[in-house]
Amino acid sequence: MRVEVAGESALIIYFGEHGQPGVAAAVAHAAERLRAVLGFRLVDLVPSYASLLVIYDAFRTDHLEVKKMIAKVLNNSDCRSDESGRLVTLPVYYGCEAGADLESLAERVGLTPEEVVELHQAGEYRVYAIGFAPGFAYLGDVDARIACPRLATPRQRVPRGAVGIADRQTAIYPAVSPGGWNLIGRCPERMFDPDREPSMPVRVGDRVRFKSISRDEFIALGGSLDDD
């Protein structure tokens, strides 16, 4: 791990070169501890695959003080080794009605749609980063047998709740937006709600599992098959 200056009032912590379960867990634990330690001095924390950006209030503290606090947190062995994270289960209505690319993805990887669904929900995924849009969680790693590149031509509108695969990653679109991931289903859970606390059901470092549900269950849980 190393700490570097990232601006007049920011430091960035690098935990490794690539996102891995242990690295993601270390980022999450460091963020949680630094939020508590820095308190009123903190402006924001921005976790990513293998790094954590620490933005502080330059009127309340300085570079040296924040760096000392970071060193104290990083020296905690629990922060370096704990790979557990919370386990969050998210429901998904799989199928061609909900996932426009399920059949084409299955054909491309040489499996049936049912086999793709089985492999997708059999995995346990780490939340490596949240970005692109509020609540868009990058989850990995998808079973290599169902890994598939992004679409050559992205869609202009992907519906809220769409579950997609891109290479070895999977994700749920939190809102209607453009996107090029291969869509295989829909999740009724809101991935971002500014009026809810917490505003997102997952955070960096969590573990995610998907549970297959029926169309009726999807609708009952507040899901919609409209594109709005």
3D structure, described in words:
- There is one protein chain.
- The protein is an alpha+beta fold and 228 residues long.
- It folds into 2 domains: 2-81, Gyrase A, domain 2; 87-220, Cyclophilin, CATH 2.40.100.
- It contains 6 helices and 13 strands.
- The chain has helices spanning 21-38, 63-74, 77-81, 102-109, 113-122, 215-220; strands spanning 2-7, 10-14, 42-47, 51-56, 87-94, 125-130, 137-140, 155-158, 162-166, 169-172, 177-179, 182-186, 207-212.
- The strands form 3 sheets. Strands 5-12-9-10-7-6-13 form a 7-stranded mixed barrel.
- Strand 3 (42-47) and strand 4 (51-56) form a beta hairpin.
- Helix 1 (21-38) crosses helix 2.
- It is elongated.
- Residues 1-202 form the Carboxyltransferase domain.
- One of its GO terms (molecular function) is hydrolase activity.
- Keywords: ATP-binding, Hydrolase, Nucleotide-binding.
